[in-house]
Design brief:
The protein is α/β, with parallel strands linked by helices and 161 residues long. The protein has four helices and six strands. The protein has a six-stranded parallel beta sheet with strand order 4-3-2-1-5-6, with helices on both faces. α1 links the parallel β1 and β2. It is globular and about 55 Å long.
Amino acid sequence: MHDQLKEGDTIEVSAPAGDFYLEKSTQPVALISGGVGVTPMMAMLDAVAANEPNRKTVFIHAARNKEAHAFGRESAEKISQLSDGKVYIAYEEKKHESDVCDVTGFISKDFLQKVIDSQSICYVCGPVPFMRAVVQHLTELGFDKQNIKYEFFGPSLALQS
């Protein structure tokens, strides 16, 4: 697009569509992202902070390493505006001993069980292998399927084994 469009060209756009949005609820919420999947989670975190600051919220983000960690400072600032919010960070690898994270390697089922309230509505967004693993962990932990919501940047069939 950047190479083909010129100033003054007309393009067709439409309003955002889909069913991946933060539901207003009294239930706790878990926002779980990997890589660029953090972008819609930041919008959801902004909405919780602005409209439901007393809602129990867990924000989990996985990145390859600290250098690839987007919105680290911003997510911590938003969580600090909540009365019951926590941020957890997972790095696939720590490049420096000073890199601080809660998980080194991949997010495990045990980790999710420890940090997410079992009544939470869970939103998951990220690369397909990440989403496949997280959704499988949540399902195995007994989360209601209606409370596991995810967004794809590709075909949704990719999660099915």
